[in-house]
Amino acid sequence: MEVLKIKNVKKSFSNDNEVLKDFSMEVNRGQVVAIIGPSGSGKSTLLRCATMLETIDSGEIIYLGEHAVKTNEEGKAVYAPPKDLKRIQSYFGLVFQNFNLFPHFTALKNVTDALITVKKMPKQEALEIGRELLDKMGLKDKEDAYPCQLSGGQQQRVSIARALALRPEILFFDEPTSALDPELTGEVLKVIKSLAAEHMTMVIVTHEMAFARDAADHVIFMDGGVIVEEGKPEEVINNPQNERTKAFLSRFDR
């Protein structure tokens, strides 16, 4: 089943800076899509548009068959009414590269706050879910710790638990390890791989080529706001066909 469909999306930040150029992609349930490419290729903008943090100029964004945005007869993007858009936004979660945790909340409160305040879930039920997710992230003994008391890798795992708490249909990751020291990257990648093994639908913008190859079942190489090459990881990363893809990947230890 198609969880996400992005169709003919265009996004410009100025008349001469078209960041996404007629971009289309599909993500099916249980699929893990890794998006790779150079800085400025449109990867993060794509995620921001897909999660409504940026508005598109034209095109369609569809979650589970419901239009978050479509294009009208004048060629302009029209978003769903606020009530419908709020429901559609509950279908996805986003893990930021810089964690975005509340510094005055404990790890457990960071995970449970939205369940209690937004979902109106009974506090005890929310706490049970929060503790279960922190345990799953290997943070069972850190529920009372504040973000400043956690390593970068631990903070990122708390942010993953927070996103999972709302039970999204699809989870987006924007460079989830870019703010981490190399020694902390492994623990976050291990968590993401475990989610992939559980068939969590994910779209991951990453600069970790080995991780993209090992965890994803579909890889997209972006450059200049378009898809240059896509396919199975072993094809795109190990045996790219496009010269631009080859040039980009030649800089990495794969």
Summed up:
With 254 residues, the chain is α/β, with parallel strands linked by helices.
Layout of SSEs?
Blueprint: E1 2-14, E2 17-28, E3 32-36, H1 43-50, E4 58-63, E5 66-71, E6 77-79, H2 82-89, E7 92-95, H3 107-117, H4 123-136, H5 152-165, E8 170-174, H6 182-197, E9 202-205, H7 209-215, E10 218-223, E11 226-231, H8 233-236, H9 243-249
Parallel strand pairs: 3-9, 3-10, 7-8, 8-9
Antiparallel strand pairs: 1-2, 1-4, 4-5, 5-6, 10-11
Helix pairs in contact: 3-4, 3-5, 4-5, 5-6
Poorly predicted residue ranges = none
Written as H for each helix and E for each strand, in order along the chain, the element string is: EEEHEEEHEHHHEHEHEEHH
Helix content: 25-40%
Average pLDDT value?
Answer: 93
Q: Beta fraction of the residues?
A: 25-35%
Count of DSSP H/I helices: 9
- Structural class by sheet pairing and helices: alpha/beta
Number of strands: 11
Question: How would you sum up the major sheet?
Answer: 6 strands, mixed
Shape: globular
Radius of gyration: 18 Å
Largest sheet strand order: 7-8-9-3-10-11
Q: What's the end-to-end separation, in Å? A: 32 Å
